[in-house]
Amino acid sequence: MRFLGSAAFAIAGVLLLAGCTDGNGSDVAASDEGEPTLGHVHGLGTDPADGTLYVASHLGVFRVDDEGSASRVADRWQDTMAFTVAGPGRFLASGHPDLREDLPPHLGLIESTDAAETWRIVSLRGRADFHALEIAGDRVYGYDAITGRLLTTTDRTLWQQVTRAPLVDLAVNPTAHERVLASSPSGAVREYEVGSRRGVRLVGAPPAVLLDWPAGNLLVGVTADGQVLRSSDEGRTWTLTSEVSGTPRRSTSASKLGTWPPRRASTSPPTTDKPGRALLRPGG
Length: 284
Prior knowledge:
Blueprint: H1 7-18, E1 41-46, E2 53-57, E3 60-64, E4 70-72, E5 79-87, E6 90-96, E7 109-112, E8 120-123, E9 130-136, E10 139-144, E11 149-153, E12 160-164, E13 169-172, E14 179-183, E15 189-193, E16 196-201, E17 208-215, E18 218-223, E19 227-231, E20 239-243, H2 254-257
Antiparallel strand pairs: 1-2, 2-3, 3-4, 5-6, 6-7, 7-8, 9-10, 10-11, 11-12, 13-14, 14-15, 15-16, 17-18, 18-19, 19-20
């Protein structure tokens, strides 16, 4: 997940996502008139063309103005998931169509080149429902919720499987695009490398559900209970930078994942994890 370029915007993003649930966890975002507007929020992104904030939700893509008012783009009620900014005015996503459109229930990979005014299906029409997408250079990663597979492509047409596992969020290594971090519903963070399906767990990582890898050694993670952490050494050590109220949208129960640092530190890593350096390339 791209946190709009910095940990500060990450916090803002978590606040907005958390604000789209009521006290009972229902997905609502009311207008001044009390009518639902955003609904279930899937993602945020800023357009580098003009800095405009876009919110992708169950009820369409919304443009947010300087006063904080949101308006639905093109009056399209498309359930826009895995929203990712690929360049100025250029977005990638997945999801489900506006019911007024003659399209399959699963859109596959879709692209907009006019800031969400129009969309076209690029590949996997009717066959994939991406709940997470990440782009780095020519490489795109996508987690398909239908098959439970993490897929990747460099031409957006031919896809290969990286692994099959339940995943929540993705973050691509900004200097080695064949490496990607993935969080799981349990909060475990693993690194995968294209061509090697076995992921290696970051032993020292917090139970993060949302991830970003904005530059070099810098990693950012958000736990299910709203703790924002950063690592400046590719995941070897982590520092708590802030805490926000609410629950990140893609999380499981915060009570299951706990807090960071753990209140009772284990004297040894879990037997399923590889000891040693926290961030390793998979060995096969």
